[in-house]
């Protein structure tokens, strides 16, 4: 662990301790106003609703597959989310029907918002994945026009198809429409490219080979070509 990581760990630990104190601070107020008095009185749930949403987003942000090496962010915000849910649960017990409905509606809205964020990210992943695979159509067109497989390295084609097949199977076992559609398309395109590779698996097109041989430095021209060139330039 280098010096930067040590300092980062120290400040992360210090931040966790301070944040834990801030999350714990409202507990005394809840005990006094609600449990002892049996009513929420004029106490506002809005700070706890906002904090719950804030903690929820930071937990999502700190997950290893989203932003790795942020364990301190995940732990403290996970605890903070737990505290806010406890406070809001106590609030719901002692709140009037109107205020209870308000809190529940806001919590539902937060859940919908987070779900929309996750779905949007998932959709973006699927769209970009599809675009990545469709970019290979250019190679298919080149191979078809040139009647040659030189534009499609067989190793890359095999691993592309294998990758698509693995993730397609993964998505089918516990059906995930985003994985199935995006990697299913990739698998199909991979198989098509492999078939075309075998179909057009031949040396460079003759016309291209002749042109290359004519103009490569140090390449010996054939006598027939030299004679033709001489006749044309008489």
TrEMBL record:
Pfam family of the protein (one): MtN3_slv
Keywords per UniProt: Cell membrane, Membrane, Repeat, Sugar transport, Transmembrane, Transmembrane helix, Transport
Transit peptide in keyword set: no
GO CC annotations on file: plasma membrane
GO molecular function annotations of the record: sugar transmembrane transporter activity
Cellular localization per UniProt: Cell membrane
Record has Nucleotidyltransferase as a keyword: no
Family label: Belongs to the SWEET sugar transporter family.
Function: Mediates both low-affinity uptake and efflux of sugar across the membrane. Mediates both low-affinity uptake and efflux of sugar across the plasma membrane.
Protein name, entry field: Bidirectional sugar transporter SWEET
Species this chain originates from: Papaver nudicaule (Iceland poppy)
Taxonomic lineage: Eukaryota, Viridiplantae, Streptophyta, Embryophyta, Tracheophyta
């Amino acid at each position: 662990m280098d010096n930067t990581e040590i300092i980062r760990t120290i400040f992360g630990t210090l931040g966790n301790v301070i944040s834990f104190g801030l999350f714990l601070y409202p507990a005394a107020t809840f005990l006094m106003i609600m449990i002892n008095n049996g009513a929420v009185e004029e106490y506002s749930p809005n700070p706890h609703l906002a904090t719950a949403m804030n903690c929820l987003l930071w937990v999502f942000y700190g997950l290893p597959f989203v932003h790795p090496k942020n364990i301190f962010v995940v732990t403290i915000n996970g605890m903070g989310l737990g505290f806010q849910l406890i406070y809001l649960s106590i609030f719901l017990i002692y709140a009037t029907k109107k205020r209870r409905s308000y809190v529940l509606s806001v919590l539902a809205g937060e859940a919908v918002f987070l779900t929309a964020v996750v779905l949007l990210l998932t959709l973006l992943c699927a769209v970009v994945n599809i675009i990545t695979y469709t970019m290979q159509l250019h190679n298919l067109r080149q191979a078809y026009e040139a009647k040659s497989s030189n534009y499609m390295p067989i190793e890359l084609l095999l691993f592309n198809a294998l990758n698509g097949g693995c993730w397609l199977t993964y998505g089918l076992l516990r059906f995930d429409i985003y994985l199935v559609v995006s990697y299913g398309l990739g698998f199909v395109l991979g198989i098509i490219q492999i078939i075309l590779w075998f179909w057009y698996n031949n040396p460079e097109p003759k016309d291209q080979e002749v042109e290359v041989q004519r103009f490569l430095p140090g390449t010996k021209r054939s006598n027939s070509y030299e004679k033709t060139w001489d006749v044309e330039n008489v």
